[in-house]
Amino acid sequence: MTRKVSNFSDLIQRVTASCLLHPLADTRYDSSCEKDDKFLYESEPNMGADDDGEDEGDGEDEEDDEIDGYGEGKMVNLKALGEKKKLKQMESLLEDVFESVSAMKRAYMSLQEAHCPWDPEKMRVADVAVVAELRKVAVLRERFRRRRGVDENGRRRKVRRREAASLREVVAPYEAVVEELKREVKAKDLEVHNLKEKLDNVVTLSSNGGGSGGSGGKKVGRSQSKRKLGLSQIQAIAATPSPELFEAAMLQVREASKSFTSLLLSLMHNAHWDITAAVRSIEAATATTATKDSYNPSAITIATSIVSAHHAKYALESYISRKFFQGFDHETFYMDGSLSSLLNPDQFRRDCFTQYHDMKSMDPTELLGILPSCHFGKFCSQKYLAVVHPKMEESLFGNLEHHRQVSTGSHPRSQFYNEFLGVAKAVWLLHLLAFSLDPSPSQFEASRCAEFHPQYMESVVRFSSGRVPVGQIVGFPVSPGFKLGNGSVVKARVYLIARA
């Protein structure tokens, strides 16, 4: 009797320990436990019979052996179920990994497709999708590491702590980036606030300077504002088109034009050009109708040049400026017959200023690398073919590679073409600003042999006395001037000579 009770106690302990070591939510486990309970309950009458003194002899030992065999089989089944569950969990994890990698690949392909044609919104959505899939892969990696390191005894509290720590490790870099971006935004907001205050002060000063002084007072105020803020700050602050912004853009056109002229003149010297003959050809073009071959040194119609040897750069800059500003009065430089500025002027002005804002910070080389046939790309191609004649290019570089690429709709990657793009971008932005203003600026140009008017003209040559001597007339125009809607004037630049 004592042995039977002991065997049942051992059986109960083994089953209980197995359930605790291998907790499963499977219905097969529940049914087996119910079977154990049923087995135990059905064994109770026999226990009662033994208590009444019935002795079964060897049958008792056989029953004990059967119970011991049943317990051992149960333990084996539980271990098999546990291994099967782990295998299913690993298969599920691998499926999640393959799905996440495939989704990340699709998102990355969408990100590449958004670059050509250029689609900022599609790029933003694809970028978010790629980051989301990378996070999923990182979480799956941590799940695999945790699962590999989990002890089969299953300490769930320890697992939860590891999960929380792993999650913090995954999220921590992104939180740090977010905090850094927040600090940068605060710094930029403070900078914008300070610049707005400076702009308000400058505008107030400019208005007070206008008073009875007319346009001269306004000009003084504007020059002071440029000295205080600087060109880049004025452009960064401007939220609406303004005459001051147009003047700043015109200064950029002049600087870019000077830089390109210096490079072109240097190439001419290296190619052993007759600079004096080239200058005479340019002077002739300003006095007569310009032709495609007007730059050619053989087309000489003036016996002696009015430009001194060290002032040849002004004649060359005049030639470049005339080519770039040709068609400036039309909304598309006469590249097509668009009439949007007449059919819907308000919307057209808004569109022009939006394009100005979008393009002013772009690198023209990168833009044309993505959209070579956009309106700006067509403008660059048209102006390059107008400024650089095939004979000129062949003389400077020994080949016509630039012309070949430009003629086929491509844009060369060279220092010379990059300098050219600097002028093209500056003129294009000025053109967008001109059609953003209401009313649009009125362009004018000083004519050859005209009297010098300091209110509308500016001499490119500085005189020793600081003032233009009496009796000076226009030898040739260098760059055009503009009359703005607020009454101010962007002076035309001219090369002056003494009256004969």
TrEMBL record:
Segments forming domain GIL1/IRKI C-terminal: 444-495
Which region is the signal sequence?
none
UniProt feature, compositional bias: Acidic residues: 49-69
Any GO BP: response to red or far red light
Q: Name one Pfam family in it.
A: DUF641
Q: Where is this region: Disordered?
A: 40-70, 203-225
List all Gly residues biased stretches. Answer: 208-218
**According to the lineage, what is the superkingdom?**
Eukaryota
Stretches assigned to the DUF641 domain? 87-204
Protein name, as recorded: DUF641 domain-containing protein
